Design the sequence.
């Protein structure tokens, strides 16, 4: 019979935290137990300590740890989520940057969707960029979308979504940028080709410091899985990835000012946004 004790939970949560920065509170023991036991059953391992040792010492390429992480991360998202932030981005901040870059004769914009899940957010950003920028095809638009979960990245690259995912897409955009496929909706290539997907662990400092010169970073509803120390580490890495004057967006329940003081605050309409001075 498969076994998983409180002591096992403590070992696994420390290992997950050290490798991915994801923090599981004690009340999550049942959730973690179900996911760990699922992998143990799949591999024919009866004792949690044996599975722990496999992850800790024998998983040289990180493949099994990735399998576990895929089960432990939840990916609740849909197109045009938290619209008030997207409205500020599309109607105020993006036009401001457009005007600035035209004056500089430098028609390049870089956007990063961190924790992109199954792709709804980066594709939403691509739609907004295509709608807002004049002569968009003259611009060099780089939209990077990253996530630690390979399963959701495969879905994102596939670009096919159910009715729930597109429920908040304006009807004109749904007709313009999606193709109906049975009961589902497929994102058109003109949007799909604007986004590059990449597997990335936000706790991987070596890879994070190579991300440079972004104008906008969206990391919404991701840091809720981190503790205070991990949040500060990741947000400071985002700070280094932004251009001066670049903006970062977190989820509605997350606050930059509670994590770090390096960003400056700006009120745009009724929304508070944060930028790198």
Sequence:
């Amino acid at each position: 019979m498969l076994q998983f004790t409180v002591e096992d939970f403590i070992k696994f949560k420390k290992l997950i935290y050290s490798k991915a920065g994801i923090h599981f509170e004690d009340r999550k023991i049942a959730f973690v137990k179900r996911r760990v036991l699922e992998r143990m059953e799949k591999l024919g391992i009866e004792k949690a300590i044996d599975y722990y040792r496999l992850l800790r010492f024998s998983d040289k390429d990180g493949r099994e740890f990735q399998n576990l992480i895929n089960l432990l991360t939840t990916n609740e998202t849909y197109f045009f989520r938290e619209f008030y932030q997207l409205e500020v981005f599309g109607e105020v901040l993006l036009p401001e940057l457009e005007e600035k870059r035209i004056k500089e004769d430098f028609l390049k914009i870089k956007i990063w969707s961190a924790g992109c899940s199954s792709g709804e957010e980066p594709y939403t950003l691509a739609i907004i960029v295509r709608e807002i920028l004049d002569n968009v095809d003259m611009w060099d638009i780089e939209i990077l979308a990253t996530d630690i979960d390979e399963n959701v990245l495969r879905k994102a690259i596939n670009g096919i979504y159910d009715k729930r995912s597109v429920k908040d897409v304006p009807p004109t955009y749904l007709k313009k940028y999606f193709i109906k496929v049975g009961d589902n909706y497929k994102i058109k290539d003109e949007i799909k080709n604007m986004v590059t997907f990449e597997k990335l662990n936000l706790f991987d400092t070596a890879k994070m410091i190579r991300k440079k010169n972004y104008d906008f970073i969206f990391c919404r509803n991701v840091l809720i899985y981190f503790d205070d120390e991990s949040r500060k580490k990741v947000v400071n890495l985002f700070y280094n990835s932004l251009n001066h004057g670049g903006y970062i967006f977190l989820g509605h329940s997350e606050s930059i000012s509670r994590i770090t003081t390096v960003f400056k605050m700006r009120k745009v309409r009724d929304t508070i946004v944060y930028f790198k001075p």
